[in-house]
Amino acid sequence: MEFGERLKRRRTINDFKQREVPRELLLDAIDVARWAPNHRLTEPWHFYLLGEQTVDAVIDLIVELKTAGKGEATRAAVMKRLDGVPAWFAVTCKRSDDPVREREDYAACCCAIQNMMLYLWQAGIGVKWTTGAVVRDERLFGILKLRPSDEFLVGLFYCGYPEVIPEQRRRPVVEIVTSLS
Ligand SMILES: Cc1cc2nc3c(=O)[nH]c(=O)nc-3n(C[C@H](O)[C@H](O)[C@H](O)COP(=O)(O)O)c2cc1C
Hints:
The chain is an alpha+beta fold. 45% of the residues lie in helices and 15% in strands. It has a 4-stranded antiparallel beta sheet, with helices on one face.
């Protein structure tokens, strides 16, 4: 398939097959991710591969945040969906006292994440990037053993072999391009 077509066909995945994601594949994807552009070669990213105990604690926290006061059926449904996610990782960005540097570093992390997602997609694995309330909850920093003074979360990621690949749409190119003289 043509390169551009592959890039277009990557999708955010919500529903995964119950099939293990090889750890080696995630490490290969991180190897590719770190070749993303990054100003001043700060390499501001850090990748956390979540093991079973950590995932359990993260799921408990997400369920608590998403279902407070909503009853047992909602709680069970959210828990079931999250339990079905085959692999989890998180990406953080180094904090900086210089806001320009921190913004550039965040941009570099996003480039690295896209490298990673595209590599995984090529290998048949779909990813969902999440930035829900959990990534700003200080309890998540405790679970992941992060120091909020040193790094912040760019996202929490679910991944696995897709069960369903959703349709997506984009606005036409003419609507997003302005040609200047
Ligand atoms: C920075 C960022 C944060 C995102 N956070 C969420 C999220 O919290 N929940 C979610 O369902 N999707 C999230 N997404 C995924 C987008 O919803 C998704 O990329 C969008 O619907 C387009 O779908 P596509 O990735 O298949 O093209 C996030 C994407 C990005 C880039």
